[in-house]
Amino acid sequence: MSDPAELKFPPPQCEVFVFGDWTLKVTKSHIMGSQCELPSLCTEDTEVDKLCNLCRYERLLTLPSLPDMVFANNSLRIEHKCGGSITFSALDALRCVNDREDTLQVAHAQVWKEARADCEFAKKVVKPYDWTYTTNFRGTLSGSLKAEASTERIDLDKLRVQEEIKFYEEIFLYEDELDDNGSTRCVVKVRVMPSGFFVVFRHYLRVDQVIVRVNDTRLYSPVGASYILRETSTREAPISKLRVDSSVYNTPDLVWQHLPLVKESIDKLVVES
Ligand SMILES: [Zn+2]
Fold it and tell me: How many CA atoms lie within 13 A of 89 on its CB side?
């Protein structure tokens, strides 16, 4: 008999695009359900890769709760022909969420308390953790692809030049409306042009009346190169200090340019021979 989960949902859709020595693989599927998909199979003794997505996430993550919408099968994997790769997935992004501390409350204690004085959501939190699901994930490296220190920047002006788009995908990893108190959203986008490929992995957070924050990791690899430039930035501002319309700060792709840079790190991913 076939897997009951497969009867319920169509299989994940995979797309592969080859660009020189690099292969870009996009996997997209449905939102993970809020209940076990394989109740007869998932037990405490079941090996982790045989569990349904929900049970696997609960086994592997130490967070006391998960975002409302998790795309457990979605991923972007970029692989060099020598075997090294970088992968973006919801599981690895959620592994990088702080599971010990309510970091937003620590940083914005007063305004946070005022904004949520009678908010049921805040009272639900029994174990301290970052309920905004802010992640400092920068992609999972494996094989011969290694990070090394670099000062080489991605030329964003060059990327603004109109070029033919040979491949484009937007891959949702997770999202939650924070019980109508805002939005937390994790998305990765990939674009391949004749001059190179460009990736933006973005975590966007808005807590109404409190803060807007955007954590971005950008990757760029020029055509013919056997390396990838990687830049990670944190930008944030209290909403009271933002001088833009709510239509701008509600839109992750617009607001980041209006937020002051808080933290940044750059490095270079190289294929070790
Ligand atoms: Zn299960």
Answer: 19
Residues 155-212 pLDDT 10s: 999 999 999 999 999 999 999 998 888 999 999 999 999 999 999 999 999 988 889 9
Nearest alpha carbon to residue 137 among 36, 212, 61: 61
Q: How far is the CA of 106 from the centre of ligand 1 (A)?
A: 35
User: What's the pTM value of the predicted model, to 2 decimals?
Assistant: 0.90
Question: Ligand 1: distance of its center to the CA of 59 in Å?
Answer: 10
How many angstroms does the Cα of residue 43 sit away from the middle of ligand 1?
8
Per-residue pLDDT reduced to its tens digit, 53-83: 999 999 999 998 899 999 999 999 999 999 9
Q: What distance in Å separates the CA atoms of residue 170 and residue 167, rounded to the nearest whole number?
A: 11
Measured in Å, residue 39 CA sits from the centre of ligand 1 at 6
